[in-house]
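Lab notebook, design round three. We kept the backbone fixed and only want residue identities now. Task for the bench partner: fill in a sequence for the structure below.
Input structure tokens:
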């Protein structure tokens, strides 16, 4: 199965730091090839970008960025162009400013018939200093926050009472994770995966499992600034999981968890496939995938977020293991099927 390309939507009111965050991602993404969709090329701070203001245009840059400028009616067409294998895009980032309400963009991505895409999450960028005034003047901001999969609380160093602002947002968004930072600095790994390139001379096909081969570590950046630390935690099990228990975990994830991905073996009679899943905020997508020749059935899950309680998280995942002698019947898969994409 070709890995679907995540589409990440970055939204926020004027001056919140969306473009600053976008430019940081472009500088820090390393080998990741990012397709960027904006209204105005001039907003992207790249010297080689000399086509500011064009519409329905596209340019490929040497630093791994493929940038586009579109209006809303052309967005799906641009997705088609970006997912062309010639561009080898790893992730698509859409800046919502001037394109549409975040709700409409999320619907467009989730409802897209493009089989190469998957929803990568809605990131709502908030100016911590201006939040009390902005939310009072524009109450729709609170509605946008409730739609978000991750809230980036930017300019946290400028907020007179940062704790109060964070508490107010947490009260609004509930379990949605909040990531505090300055200067739009968000580690790319918190938002999308680094690519795993196929070896030139290697006969093996890139598998989903290769994407899970990540060292467990704490994310850090070379800059000294205020920000929340994020973690990447790996979970492995040789026991098949109860898919009903896994779905219960995905539908009620722990506080602070923003992303999770995994390849799972399920304890269902006659079931020989592996099930891959992606969790972004509160959005779940699942797909069954045939095992490769000689591939063992096992479970590997990676979880990424801020302020994660590793011990409690591991305990919850261990509790999803099926320990009874008898396998489950196929009805146990109904919860997973609910989150599989409609066939194209």
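Proposed sequence:
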């Amino acid at each position: 199965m070709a890995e679907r390309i995540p589409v990440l939507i970055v939204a926020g009111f004027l001056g919140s730091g969306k473009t600053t965050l976008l430019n940081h991602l472009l500088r820090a993404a390393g080998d990741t090839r990012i397709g960027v969709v904006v209204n105005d090329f001039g907003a992207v701070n790249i010297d080689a970008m000399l086509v500011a203001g064009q519409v329905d245009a596209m340019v490929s840059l040497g630093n791994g960025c493929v940038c586009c400028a579109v209006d809303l009616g052309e967005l799906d067409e641009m997705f088609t162009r970006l997912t062309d294998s010639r561009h080898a895009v790893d992730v698509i980032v859409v800046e919502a400013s001037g394109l549409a309400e975040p709700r409409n963009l999320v619907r467009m991505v989730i409802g897209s018939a493009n089989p190469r895409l998957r929803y990568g999450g809605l990131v709502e960028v908030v100016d911590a200093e201006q939040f009390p005034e902005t939310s009072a003047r524009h109450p729709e901001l609170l509605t946008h926050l409730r739609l978000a999969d991750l809230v980036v609380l930017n300019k946290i160093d400028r907020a007179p009472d940062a704790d109060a602002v964070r508490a107010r947002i947490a009260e609004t968004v509930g379990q949605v994770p909040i990531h505090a930072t300055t200067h739009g600095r968000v580690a790319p790994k918190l938002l999308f995966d680094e690519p795993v390139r196929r070896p030139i001379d290697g006969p093996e096909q890139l598998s989903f499992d290769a994407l899970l081969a990540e060292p467990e570590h704490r994310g850090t950046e070379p800059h000294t600034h205020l920000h929340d630390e994020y973690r990447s935690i790996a979970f492995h099990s040789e026991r098949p999981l109860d898919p009903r228990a896994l779905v219960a975990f995905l539908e009620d994830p722990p506080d602070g968890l923003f992303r999770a991905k995994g390849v799972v073996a399920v304890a269902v009679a006659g079931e020989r496939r592996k099930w891959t899943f992606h969790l972004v905020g509160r959005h779940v997508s699942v797909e069954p995938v045939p095992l490769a020749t000689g591939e063992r059935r096992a479970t590997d899950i990676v979880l990424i977020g801020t302020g994660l309680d590793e011990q409690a998280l591991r305990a919850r995942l261990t509790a999803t293991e099926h320990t009874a002698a008898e396998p489950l019947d196929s009805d146990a898969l109904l919860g997973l099927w609910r989150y599989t994409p409609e066939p194209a």
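Keep this in mind before ordering anything: The two ends are 14 Å apart (CA to CA).
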